[in-house]
Write a structure and sequence with these properties.
alpha+beta, Arc Repressor Mutant, subunit A, Beta-Lactamase, six-stranded antiparallel sheet, two-stranded antiparallel sheet, 8 strands, 48% helix, globular
């Protein structure tokens, strides 16, 4: 991939994140450049190129937002990805029930990548970014995908370097294999502080027609206190498994 293309894609992702975080349709150039970690002249040039094709629009104040062409990509993605289209109503219902972030991910090589997310409306919340990728040995989402993946995928992870993100990240292949067996038997995975300290997640696999994991659906939340967390970890897995069952084989 060319450097210019990589910069352009990075810029669009940064702009999308800013528009969502700021709850505004348009963001100043300097703020976009800082978020994308690029100089302003490069950002301005790329934004002008994207504007020609409708992926970016500007207002009278010289601020920028996503253009209508991005909707075409979103519609095409929903039309192509039947699992995503079917998952969104399920995710909305779970988000309403729990009040926490609900995330959908898919396996790409040896990584678990967030492809859709309904972020909690609570002031203190835990959420990933769309496109965020984490190694399969880290967190509930990655581990449940790995547990339900083909033996060749599991072998590749277990033989590779297991990166440590927090003190709770599992980096011992023997312990990881044991955890994978537990997850496969239970049908879900739980995690506390493996990817981000002070957070929790419950994840279940979204299975293909062959029984292997396409990805995972997860509920994410910052610790709400040990008693609340324990109750959620005890009750939410069965609720999530029941909700996700209709997506298997889609």
């Amino acid at each position: 991939m060319s450097r210019t293309l990589e910069q352009g894609l990075k810029l669009l992702m940064a702009l999308a994140d800013l528009c969502e975080e700021e709850d505004d349709a348009h963001v100043p150039l300097r703020q976009i450049a800082a978020a994308a970690e690029m100089n302003k002249s490069t950002v301005y040039r790329l934004l002008q190129s994207f504007s020609k094709f409708g992926f970016v629009e500007s207002d009278e104040a010289g601020s920028y937002g996503l253009g209508s062409a991005t909707l075409l990509l979103a519609r095409a993605t929903l039309g192509r990805n039947a699992t995503l289209a079917a998952a969104i109503p399920v995710m909305r219902e779970i988000a309403q029930q729990t009040g926490e972030t609900v995330s959908l991910s898919e396996r790409r090589d040896l990584f678990n990548v967030t492809i859709y997310e309904i972020e909690s409306a609570q002031p203190i919340r835990y959420a990933n970014k769309l496109g965020a990728a984490a190694p399969l040995h880290i967190s509930a989402g990655g581990r449940v995908v790995l547990a339900f993946s083909e033996p060749s995928v599991q072998a590749a992870v277990l033989k590779g370097k297991l990166e440590r993100i927090t003190p709770k990240t599992i980096v011992d292949p023997v312990k990881l294999r044991s955890k994978l067996n537990e997850v496969k038997k239970a049908g879900f995975a739980i995690s506390s502080g493996e990817r981000v300290s002070g957070t929790n997640s419950v994840s279940v696999p979204v299975l293909r027609s062959d029984g292997y994991a396409r990805g995972a659906m997860s509920i994410l939340w910052p610790s709400r206190g040990s008693e609340v967390d324990r109750k959620r970890i005890a009750t939410w897995p069965s609720m999530l498994m029941s909700a996700v069952r209709i997506l298997h084989g889609v």
